[in-house]
Amino acid sequence: MNKITLFLLLVISTISLVSCEEKFGPDVDPTPAEATITGKWSFKSLGTITDKKTYELTLDDIRKIPGTNTSSVDSISNTYAYEFKTDSTYLSGTDSGKWKSSSDGKTIVLTSKVTKGMNGKYQVQTLSVLTLTSNELVLGYKKFTADADGDFNATTFEDFVFLAMGGLALQYKGTEQEAKSATSIQGTINLKR
Questions:
Q1: Under DSSP, is residue 146 helix (H, G, I), strand (E, B) or coil?
Q2: 189: pLDDT confidence band, cut at 50, 70 and 90?
Q3: pTM, full prediction
């Protein structure tokens, strides 16, 4: 699992992850969630939510991972600092583009104008809004559920990244037994004002 972790740190240091299909049209009206989500958010931690427990991996925790260097930790902190502007644009590290909220405020879609996915098109990333208060924003990646054999399957590169991202905090903050008994995994980006 250490090779996966090092690979994941490389991936999250150089790209802002995966492209997905855009689920909301360009004429989505602003919602109350957008008014709350607007502004600058700084990186707090990466998280893992399982069916039993939640785990957080702070920058200090990431610094302790063998093979991690200062520039990769700084890159994570910068990559996952977001500014959501009222004109529906966003900035995140070296990435920028448009953002939209679903009508119920439970998801946001980020459409990059900078970062291209493996398909050569600009990345479109859909994230769940798991927590949104005046000082805390928790964005969730794709959720995975174990199959009958207890395995989490990642059939695409994007799924592999989401699964690795989802399991990272569990791997370093949980026990081996907790990791083996998890039947669902979802990675999070935890932000603060």
A1: coil
A2: very high
A3: 0.79
